[in-house]
Amino acid sequence: MASQSPLYIGFDLSTQQLKGVAVNSDLKVEYLAKFDFDADSTGFSIKKGVMTNEAEHEVFAPVALWLQAMDTVLESLRKQGMDFGRVKGISGAGQQHGSVYWNSDAEQLLQGLDAKKTLEDQLSAAFSHPYSPNWQDASTQKECDEFDAVLGGPEQLAQATGSKAHHRFTGPQILRFTRKHPQVYEKTSRISLVSSFIASLFLGHIAPFDISDVCGMNLWNIKQGGYDEKILKLCSGQFDVEGLKNKLGPLYEDGGKHLGSVHSYYRERYGFSPDCTVIPATGDNPATILALPLRPSDAMVSLGTSTTFLMSTPNYKPDPATHFFNHPTTAGLYMFMLCYKNGGLAREHVRDAINDTFQDPSLAHSWTHFDEKALSTSPMGQTSPTSPMKLGLFFPRPEIVPNLRAGQWRFTYDPTTGALTESTASSSWNTPHDEARAIIESQMLSLRLRSRGLTHSPGPGLPPQPRRVYLVGGGSKNKAIAKIAGEILGGVEGVYKLDIGDNACALGAAYKAVWGIERAEGQTFEELIGQRWKEEDFVEKIAEGYQEGVFELYGKAVEGFEAMEKRVLDQVRAEKRA
Ligand SMILES: Nc1ncnc2c1ncn2[C@@H]1O[C@H](COP(=O)(O)OP(=O)(O)O)[C@@H](O)[C@H]1O
Ligand SMILES: O=C(CO)[C@@H](O)[C@H](O)COP(=O)(O)O
Asked: What subcellular locations does the record give (predicted)?
């Protein structure tokens, strides 16, 4: 009977919301529930899902908020009439790098969950520290310098762990935690990532890290397939390294491993079946590449709070400017990633500045004028083929790529002479209107610049570019962004969006659960999902990709963009020295 057919839930615990998506064995979405942290939570002083301590560049989120969100999402699925008895597998996607600090009561509290009470009521006491450092945190420069030095330099750290040291990576965050909260660290019995935190809630005990998400810590030696002892020693600070290993716990290579049955709490409270199994939850970016059978020639751009550029590749070519992770399901494959802090929120700043010029409060949160300005401005703001290009950097928060302080810079660039001239807000630029197109171009040019080593020519006479560009995340709803993304990044087959585009990571997590439970012996994720994937039902072409002429024009703009970044980096270094 169709109604008895299995369901698989994927949870996505990202920066600004928790989502739960239930799919069936044919990969079709049957239920979807969402909890928006700012709009739907009670009792937390958060903005855009996080709290900040500007003085120390700290960004963090209250863990109890996520418990409230999980209670509400499960309740919402129940209200929609979902039969939890059909759920055979649960997995999740967590915002990457965030760490959850459990106290010594945690295991007992998790095991003893009482079905009559909420998770928030029962587990708020399970943490030695009530907050999880957020990926936007920039408080760990000192620790990053130590991490970068520990194996000889950032190149060596990137070779070993897939990334040089980054403020948000969990290893530097833990080291800072040992220094800022030494007593709390001592009282911490286990540390979870946001992904393993989700799995822990459903297992009723603390779950192991996931083989892909562990690569977001700067602790895991990807080539050796184990924690790097030298780095662990550094990370444990004044404390002993064995203690840190115990806090981190074990890890399994298999991304489809059956971690155990769902805890009786969920059976009694929601009617889950005893044979519902928990599959390791992964990071939100690794989960995103599982939302479709991604080929090595395809690229995904996730337009969430962060902007990320993702590719699946068999080639491990780490570099301090990029990230490599283990693939979440398939040994021998890796995930290549670029991650920008100034993604969705930076675009919102420009949107709001444009809306403010209309002095109409009903425009709040509307993208209409932003889109109209972006589409009515010509590529690079050129008024004629020989006029200067407008180039800018829009960083309301300190950026990751390049590692640059918050700020806004505007330039004009003459592609024939290479002349690059800094502009003030009022000279040459019509602010904020010119900035709608300029911010999208700036973000996409940075992606093209940094991914060009990974793209190949898709056919005779065609320049290197992705075969397809898939847009996911909240910004994938935006057709103006899609059009400009296609013009700059190319994509010989075009720019696509998933049918449920801004729920891609929850969907990828649900597919991971399908694979974990239904795979045949030795069947890869790509084989199983590839067989069940219905292209015509699941993706939609939303913009042209490669367009001869305009792609080449943006090729010239990439050169100007690279020069502009270098100029700004030099200026900021000089400022620091002065
Ligand atoms: N129509 C739109 N055009 C552009 N951006 C949008 C649109 N709708 C939502 N967004 C952006 O999506 C972002 C949220 O994306 P989402 O993937 O849901 O976030 P996260 O996973 O980081 O919590 C918001 O910051 C907002 O800027
Ligand atoms: O830090 C990273 C990746 O390294 C971010 O991409 C986080 O994983 C949060 O993502 P979103 O909430 O924007 O989806």
From this structure: Cytoplasm
Q: Which ligand is closest to the CA of 497, given by its number? A: 1
501 lines ligand 2 (CB under 6 A): no
Q: Cα(130)–Cα(112) distance, rounded to whole angstroms? A: 20
Residue 367, ligand 1, Cβ within 6 A: yes
DSSP, res 506 = H
For 409, residues 6+ apart whose C-beta sits below 8 A from its C-beta are 392, 393, 422, 564, 568
Residue reference for tokens 């990029």? 322
CATH of the domain at 72: 3.30.420.40
For residue range 196-222, what is the model confidence (pLDDT) as tens digits?
Answer: 999 999 999 999 999 999 999 999 999
Give the pLDDT mean for 137-153: 97
**pTM of the predicted protein model:** 0.94
Distance 570 CA to ligand 2 centre (A): 28
CA 331 to chain CA mean position, Å: 21
Q: Which two tokens stand for residue 458?
A: 């898709």
Per-residue confidence band for 3, with pLDDT thresholds at 50, 70 and 90: low
Expressed in angstroms and rounded, the spacing between residue 415 Cα and the centre of ligand 1 is 33
Interface confidence, given as ipTM, is 0.96
C-alpha dist (Å) from residue 552 to 287, 470, 564: 33, 21, 19
For a mutational test of ligand 1's pocket, the pick from 308, 355, 365, 478, i.e. the residue with the most ligand atoms closer than 8 A to its C-beta, is 478
User: Which tens digits make up the pLDDT trace of 498-522?
Assistant: 887 689 999 999 999 999 999 999 9
Number of alpha carbons in the 13 Å side-chain half-sphere of residue 456: 9
Amino acid (one-letter) located at 122: Q
Q: First-to-last CA distance in the chain? A: 74
Structural domain of 506: 299-578
307 lines ligand 2 (CB under 6 A): no
- The SS3 of residue 337 is strand
Do 569 and 402 touch, CB atoms closer than 8 A?
Answer: yes
The pair of three-digit structure tokens given for residue 13, joined into one six-digit string? 């615990």
> Residue 425: its pLDDT value, please?
63
Q: Which among 202, 217, 167, 199 has a CA at the least distance from the CA of 84? A: 202
Looking at the structure of the chain, the number of domains it has is: 2
User: Of the candidates 249, 280, 311, which is a domain's last residue?
Assistant: 280
Residue 294: inside a domain: no
Are residues 273 and 366 located together in one domain of the fold? no
Atom 19 of ligand 1 has which residue's CA nearest to it?
Answer: 304
Structure tokens at 200: 């822990």
Exposed / middle / buried, residue 198 (Cβ in 10 Å: 0-12, 13-18, 19+) = buried
